[in-house]
Amino acid sequence: TPHADLHADPRTGAAVKAADRAHVFHSWSAQGLIDPLAVAGAEGSYFWDYDGNRYLDFTSGLVYTNVGYQHPKIVAAIQEQAGKLATFAPAFAVEARSEAARLIAERTPGDLDKIFFTNGGAEAVENAIRMARLHTGRPKVLSAYRSYHGGTATAINVTGDPRRWPSDSGTAGVVHFWGPFLYRSPFYSSTEQEECARALTHLEDTIAFEGPGTIAAVVLETIPGTAGIMPPPPGYLAGVREICDRYGIVFVLDEVMAGFGRTGAWFAADHYDVVPDLLTFAKGVNSGYVPLGGVAISGAIAETFETRPYPGGLTYSGHPLACAAAVATIDAMAEENVVEHAARIGETVLGPGLRELAERHPSVGEVRGLGAFWALDLVRDRATREPLVPYNASGEANAPMAAFAAACKKNGLWPFVNMNRTHAVPACNITEAEAKEGLAALDTALAAADEHT
Ligand code: PMP
């Protein structure tokens, strides 16, 4: 039976929690202030604890279980690969690895036909930057303030989100600029066209004053995710492409979160008809069943390393278990039309449903997104757009968002909450009924946020 684990022994749950408390050091947390849920099992869009509470996962883990939990084809492929060849070092041609690379290259836009495998997104960003620096012989990297690119040394410096602050070593050569974001426009624009034009002028001015000949790369999330799911205005990414071409700058699109179906396309770049020189991916490539990420590389950049060695690598690059999971994920997504489904559920259920909530709840300032990739920007006052909680809020100041999250959980929904936003980022194959169940839980929980308007 699918949810037999719902009746798992709560005493085991208590033991799991006690060992976690004693020995697991958690990410991004004050260790003494957290109380992680002990998870007994998961399937599809749901997971459950040892006390019989079941949650609809509107976070997809960390926005990565694009085909949900325990997809039978992926589980079987990992088991089969484990039986055949559980691991093998990167310097060999291995069937699962070459097949995963072929399937990924077939789907990435343009001539991004060579794949460098990593274990996750941050390592992909680190290597994309290294490739851009070696390809151009230039040191600097430009990235957006409203961005997240990973938690390792260079990736966290390139990140613009305030999570950068405690770790920021001020890495030489990382320069931040403002990307477009009409709702909280850094350029005081009132239309998409204005925002696009001003953001492009700002980028070009930044390049002019930093020195075009010193800039290796512009790194952007195609649709910034963690920082607020902000689809760029039409023409922006094409404009950045043109600017990069003019100055010989490598254009890196980070699709770690937006890639592999999340936006209702294989890659978010497909919506904008733009082809970067390097594209980073992770998460959805195999729904995170085994850690995997990578960089898809253009012909011109790959050519740089035809006769000159690429000075970078990872012991587990292209791990056979992770690659077998990627092959099975991509096959399953194609067979089950998951990408088309995500586009449709966004257009017909999530988008209209979230907009309808915004009409009734004064705390919702803006609804943004597409596919299975949506944000609600929560505000204290719709007229001023003052965020419901201050940016980088913590502790007491974040009580309204904590109350909202608690209300979601009480209603069987596991929410994504960051600063003043909640993101609706379920599995890309979420059913219509499940999506509606999530919207109903959000409806109830938003009342808790409304109290602070
Ligand atoms: N880039 C983007 C756009 C991301 O969303 C993330 C993770 N949220 C990363 C990079 C880092 O990926 P990882 O945590 O796998 O290192």
TrEMBL record:
<dbReference type="Pfam" id="PF00202">
    <property type="entry name" value="Aminotran_3"/>
</dbReference>
<dbReference type="InterPro" id="IPR015422">
    <property type="entry name" value="PyrdxlP-dep_Trfase_small"/>
</dbReference>
<dbReference type="InterPro" id="IPR049704">
    <property type="entry name" value="Aminotrans_3_PPA_site"/>
</dbReference>
<dbReference type="GO" id="GO:0008483">
    <property type="term" value="F:transaminase activity"/>
</dbReference>
<protein>
    <submittedName>
        <fullName>Aspartate aminotransferase family protein</fullName>
    </submittedName>
</protein>
<comment type="similarity">
    <text>Belongs to the class-III pyridoxal-phosphate-dependent aminotransferase family.</text>
</comment>
<dbReference type="InterPro" id="IPR015424">
    <property type="entry name" value="PyrdxlP-dep_Trfase"/>
</dbReference>
<dbReference type="InterPro" id="IPR015421">
    <property type="entry name" value="PyrdxlP-dep_Trfase_major"/>
</dbReference>
<keyword id="KW-0808">Transferase</keyword>
<keyword id="KW-0032">Aminotransferase</keyword>
<dbReference type="InterPro" id="IPR005814">
    <property type="entry name" value="Aminotrans_3"/>
</dbReference>
<keyword id="KW-0663">Pyridoxal phosphate</keyword>
